[in-house]
Design brief:
With 154 residues, this protein is mainly alpha-helical. It is built from five helices and no strands. It is elongated.
């Protein structure tokens, strides 16, 4: 899965965004980054294990299952914490899930088009997490730099 330079750059981009969320984000941003990181790690591990053992269709169903679990985990986070950006992240992941389904149903999508759309959706998901982390980080630093509330006694 990391055979081309583009996939290696994507892996570095995903790693950078998730590390940014882990170190500068709040609990929700860290949880979303953990879901994405675990999804990628599971996909890489399953790709390594299944590559020579089973047909390509078994691999595609497995990756579809991993993407479905990721979408469900992001949905659970969105329902629990009611953050708008989590809804956007979940929609990006759901669109990626639909893209996998379209490829499996053989709707005439070429491999090149599939990869372009897959990379765009993944980039969108990562941009949403990076944006949410940056917003949380700025708000937290503003709260820390603000003077404490003092009540003047007359």
């Amino acid at each position: 899965m990391l055979h081309s330079i583009i996939s290696q750059i994507g892996f570095l981009w995903m790693s950078a965004v998730c590390l940014f969320a882990f170190f500068k984000g709040g609990f929700v941003e860290r949880a979303a980054a953990a879901v994405v990181s675990l999804s990628w790690a599971l996909t890489l591990a399953l790709s390594f294990v299944l590559s020579g053992l089973f047909s390509r269709q078994v691999e595609e169903f497995t990756f579809l299952g991993v993407d479905a679990l990721t979408a469900i985990a992001l949905l659970a986070l969105a329902l629990r914490f009611a953050k708008l950006w989590l809804g956007g992240a979940m929609l990006m992941q759901s669109a990626e899930l639909a893209l996998h389904g379209a490829v499996m149903a053989e709707w005439g999508l070429s491999f090149r088009d599939y990869m372009i759309w897959n990379n765009l959706l993944t980039t969108g998901l990562l941009l949403i997490i990076a944006y949410a982390t940056a917003v949380f980080w700025c708000r937290r630093s503003r709260r820390r730099s603000a003077p404490p509330n003092t009540i003047a006694h007359a």
